[in-house]
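Quick illustration, no need to memorize.
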Amino acid sequence: MKTKILLTLIFLSLSSGLMAQNAEQLYNQGKALYDAGKFTQAFPIMLKSAEKGNKKAQYRLGRMYDKGEGVHEDNKKAFAWYLKAAAQGHPKAQFQVGRCYKKGKAVAKDPEKAFKYFLSSARQDCAAGQVALAKHYFYAGDMKKAKQWATKGVNNPKKGDEELTELRREAAQGEVAATALLKMIGK
């Protein structure tokens, strides 16, 4: 009896490892197609990986639905996939969920939930989350934290330059927070 239980446990642990590996392999295949601009071909592979619980694939599916890449644009499906990935700690997905709550995109506006997701994202070194958090603090009147997070965001080696470019674009369009943050950080 003990041998049967031990064999069953070994089998279950091996098969769960194979499923996880399979989800990762599927994600890598789908990501290669996605990066090549073959969104329609990437979608079913990403979907299989996401359904197996791969948080990177869940995030990527959210982006595909959000942008209409390989599928019809669908904000509700985008939000649902972002939320699944965010629940697993994916920082970019957490930023996107925060963005949805901030703008009321596919969900009711909820500034408190937006803040919670931006904070989680920012703490995991997501440049977009850091800049979003800086804007939140700016509008809340906490200039010290606004400057701190804006500085982290634009100096982030992972896409900080893109966030700086975006802040400059927003400032050129007259966005108050972007203009003030750029001034605060001397950019």
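Confidence is low (pLDDT under 50) at residues 6-20.
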